[in-house]
Each structure stands twice: as C-alpha cells, then as structure tokens.
Specification:
Length: 79
C-alpha cells in the first residue's frame, strides 16, 4: 500500500524519518550513507500533496501527531 499526505496547515512541515523508527517500519535502510548515516526527511509545503509514500511514514511519531492535530491529511491507495 502507498499513501498520500496533504499538508493542511499554513506552514511548511518537515519530518525527520529517523532510522530507528522509519527504516525499521520500512524493513530496509533509507538513510544516506557515507562517513556517517544521515536520516532521510520529508518536506511538505503548505497545501501540497505528496503521493506514493510508503505507509512506514505513518510510524513516525511527528507524522502521527500532525495527523491527529489535523495538520496532515492521509489518503491510502494501491501501489
């Protein structure tokens, strides 16, 4: 399954997709690697919808909080 997230707030939102939460839910590492591992992130401008996201993004506590507060809308779709 894939999901779409829509930023319903009037401000840009940035979510850090922390390795210990996001990558664990994803089942593989999505971090950038080099000298150090750097977690990936998700940036949503105000009013923007991002499609085809893995549902592992819904494991991130900040995303869960934003959905509960009404700042993000989630739509599920087939991938």
């Amino acid at each position: 399954m894939s999901i779409s997230l829509t930023n319903l707030s009037r401000r840009c939102q940035v979510f850090v997709l922390a390795h210990d939460v996001f990558c664990a839910a994803l089942g593989r590492c999505a971090c950038r690697t080099g000298a150090r591992r750097v977690a990936s992130s998700l940036t949503l401008a105000s009013g923007v919808t991002v499609d085809s996201l893995d549902d592992a993004v819904l494991a991130v506590p900040e995303v869960i909080r934003a959905v509960r507060e009404g700042a993000l809308s989630v739509k599920r779709g087939a991938a």
